[in-house]
Amino acid sequence: RDGQQEMPATSFQTAKKVVFSGGGDFNINDYLSADTIEIKNNSSLEISNECSIGKLFCLDDSKLINSNNFYLHNAIGLTFSKTSTLELNNNQTLERSIQVGNLVLAPSISFELNIKDTLYIGGNFLGKGFVSGDPIIEYNGDFRQIIKKRNYKTLVYNNSCIDSSTFYGDYTITNLKVKKGKLKIGNLLINKCQIDSLGQILIGGNAPVFDDTTQISGRLIINSNQARPIFDFITVTSNGVFCNNSSANITISKGIKNDGK
Fold first, then answer.
1. SS3 of 114, please?
2. Among 141, 142, 176, 202, which one is least packed by beta carbons within 10 Å?
3. Sign of dihedral through CA atoms 133, 136, 140, 144?
4. pLDDT tens digits for 151-162?
5. Residue 41 φ/ψ region, left for φ over 0, alpha for ψ in the -120 to 50 degree band, beta for the rest
6. How far is CA 11 from CA 29, 31, 49, in A?
7. How many CB atoms within 10 Å of residue 168?
């Protein structure tokens, strides 16, 4: 139902399936063991106590809020739509990859994943908390996304929208891979950079530094006369495009291997 509602007690604190629907704000404040929890129809559920969950689904534009003693690793299966929201108000550690929609981390809250795992973000990355453990972070939304302003070990941009997302500021990316979509960048320090055939990097009036090889199989486009990019070495594959639409002063330290356009 609409409005605010606390889940009533269940027999032996167990349930086969619990569905939260109707667009309301729901709470689970007591222990619960459930095979399935489903949040749908733009509903919001806050879980604040230890629970044992088989499968948890957060669908459409719904929201899951974690607080106090509830931890994601206590759910065997986690499914979030790309338009849903996961809000973390307590520290979390997860030893597997996860797809979320919007991710909101409260101040000083840590969301830790392994370096081998991937945090897929289909929406926006918001809040003043932080992701730790240096996982791969992949933005794979279907609309323009807010890229969290922070340093990245491995950042993957894989966006299906025709509009561009922006990542401005003085941040460091050890490995940048643009699989799909348009990414506008600011004064970033980028070590290795790979632009796949469906990807584009757009440089306006900024001075990014590419500190190692930049491999272009898609497009890298410079659009501003005030741009001051610095490249170490550029490789343009047969389908790649390196396009300078400006009179900007471009520095390429070690040259270009150009098999493209």
1. coil
2. 142
3. positive
4. 999 999 999 999
5. left
6. 15, 12, 17
7. 14
